[in-house]
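Archive record
______________

***
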Amino acid sequence: MAKKVTKVALIYDFDGTLSTTDMQDYGLIPEFGMKPKDFWPIANQWSVDNGADQVTGSMYFFVKTAREMGIKLTRENFRKAGQNIIYFKGVEEWFDRMTAYGKGLNLQVEHYIISAGYEEILEGCKIYKYFKNVFGCSFAYGEDGTPVWPARVINYSTKTQYLSKINKGLGKLEDRLVNEFMPDEERPIPFRRMIYFGDGSTDIPSMKLTKERNGTAIAVYNPKDTATSKKKALKLLKDGRVNFALPADYREGKQLDVVIKTILDKIAKERDLEILQAKEEEKKKKL
């Protein structure tokens, strides 16, 4: 029996989920001659003092700091910062392996990022090529090539909008269509075929939405930081926000690898059952 190819979306937060810490920490903040532990409290306090959303405020603060230090921020600066990112073990091999495993089940596995980090930094990452689409904050640029305004801001609440775009097969700029009615059977990737990976409180709305709509939400934690990171992930599990709380170890044979392959097996079996049930419905119509 020929099987129809079925799309599955693996959707990732980035900072603390695929990378070991915030993407700006690896190259951008060091370019200012500062350490992340010194920079972030100042940036976050600026947002508080000015009544700004923390993500929007930090975007402005990066531009402000660069200007004051005489550093010309450009797309190229951001891309270079992406080259220095350190990933959790197994991340760089993960995407090809999951795609190949899905292909063996006649599943078309697509990888997506939804991040409050910067698209320009992500464009410089080694793993950027593996993603069907990347949704992140980004800047608008002036004639001199430097940032002048936030072109797109993604925070904990707006992340869910991009889940809907994936569900409906929309691109990042198709904002008006996200609220247009689309019958469930016409949506390319139902929520039940979505797997969302996140690491903290900013992912809760997306985790909750995915889980409530019969998809799978996974909280990952830093295997080297079990005191804080693991405790946070286990609380998400206890509170019913996620289906699994697992170490961010993406190597073959590790817990995350086994769980995702098992979920893909389940999706394929459910797809096969739906096909068989549809055949039975056709029989009934002919009786």
About this structure: The CA atoms of residues 118 and 131 lie 15 Å apart. The chain has one domain: 6-21+87-140+151-286. The mean pLDDT is 93. The beta strands are 6-12, 107-118, 133-141, 147-152, 194-198, 216-221, 244-247.
